[in-house]
Amino acid sequence: MTFTQAVFAGGFLSGHYELLGLHADYGRITGYAAVAQLITAILLWRPGRGPGWPVLVCTLLLGAVGSQIYLGFARILSIHVPLGVAVITGSVLLVIWAWKPMAPSPETPQ
């Protein structure tokens, strides 16, 4: 979803002006997804007994996405564009971590 944002922005900059509306709409959807991601990280941590650091990362990503939405509508592109790259990078790293096979713990029966 975050990569699609970059595609829409690039299309807009290439002269396909209707893509700016899609970029804005997907920005809002990305914000909702960031909230869901944070809730999932909290559930992994507390009832799931998983690591707590994803809560911090997801909180930072939610703050970055919220900032992205504000900066985009305010047309502060000098911060909006590099922050978008950071959001995409953080999201990709989080997905890689989430899908990486985990070593079995000593308590896990084999």
Description:
This protein is mostly helical and 110 residues long. The protein has one domain (2-99). The chain is 75% helix and 0% strand. It contains four helices and no strands. It has helices spanning 2-13, 19-45, 53-73, 77-99. Helix 3 packs antiparallel against helix 4 (77-99). The longest helix is centred in the N-terminal third of the chain and has 27 residues, at 19-45. It starts with a helix and ends in an 11-residue tail after the last helix. The mean pLDDT is 93.
Please provide a brief summary of the model.
Helices cover 75% and strands 0% of the residues. The protein is mostly helical and 110 residues long. The mean pLDDT is 93.
The total number of structural domains is: 1
Distance between the termini: 36 Å
Biggest sheet character: none
Helix content: over 70%
| Structural class assignment | mainly alpha
- What is the gyration radius calculated from CA atoms? 17 Å
Q: Which runs of at least 5 residues are low in confidence (pLDDT < 50)?
A: none
Task: Outline the secondary-structure elements.
Elements (H helix, E strand, L loop, with lengths): L1 H12 L5 H27 L7 H21 L3 H23 L11
Helix pairs in contact: 1-2, 2-3, 3-4
Which features does this protein show?
110 residues, mainly alpha, 75% helix
